[in-house]
Amino acid sequence: MTSFIIITVLSALAACYGAVVPPSEENMISRFALEQMYPDFTVEYNEKYENRVAFSKGEARNDQILLLTREIHVPAVPGETQYADLIHRSSSNVRITRVVWIPLTWPLPTLISIKGVGTDVVHISCTSFVGENIHVLFSLYGEIIEN
């Protein structure tokens, strides 16, 4: 009888655990996995991104302006890898300081390469897993440089 009571109490505690653990701790394991998958990016969870996971490269500051928002969608083709490139050139007095990307479908792209953060030209390359699509939202932020 004692073991039955102990099992019942432990079951009740286990059932209540999900209600007690804050969302930030729930996402800790998935955040760790995403950080390992994309080591060059910062993983963010934010209501601003409709509770989606977002990845960023570059420094987040309050004085940045939104330069570009672009959704890239390349449909899946069975047995083939999909590729997409985005090149953005700002005027010479604007420096691109941050790129944020949000995957809009799963699985995530196998490779995202962002080059040129800190300059006026950014080149973004996306590669899908074999047989999967690419569906990503990119936001580029920057600052105006005084001449």
Task: Describe the model.
This protein has 147 residues and is an alpha+beta fold. It has 2 domains: 1-37, no CATH class; 43-144. 22% of the residues lie in helices and 41% in strands. The protein has helices at 2-20, 23-26, 28-37; strands at 42-45, 53-58, 65-74, 83-89, 94-103, 111-115, 121-127, 134-144. The strands form 2 sheets. Strands 1-2-5-8-3 form a 5-stranded antiparallel β-sheet, with helices on one face. Strands 4-7-6 form a 3-stranded antiparallel β-sheet, with no helix packed on it. β1 and β2 form a beta hairpin. The model is unreliable at 13-26 (pLDDT under 50).
Characteristic terms for this protein:
147 residues, alpha+beta, 2 domains, three-stranded antiparallel β-sheet, 8 strands, globular, signal
End-to-end gap: 81 Å
Query: Unreliable runs, pLDDT <50, ≥5 residues?
Result: 13-26
Largest sheet: 5 strands, antiparallel
Task: Kindly report the average pLDDT value.
Answer: 78
Strand content: 35-45%
Helix/sheet category: alpha+beta
Globally, the shape reads globular
Task: Provide the fold topology.
Layout (H helix, E strand, L loop, with lengths): L1 H19 L2 H4 L1 H10 L4 E4 L7 E6 L6 E10 L8 E7 L4 E10 L7 E5 L5 E7 L6 E11 L3
Antiparallel strand pairs: 1-2, 2-5, 3-8, 4-7, 5-8, 6-7
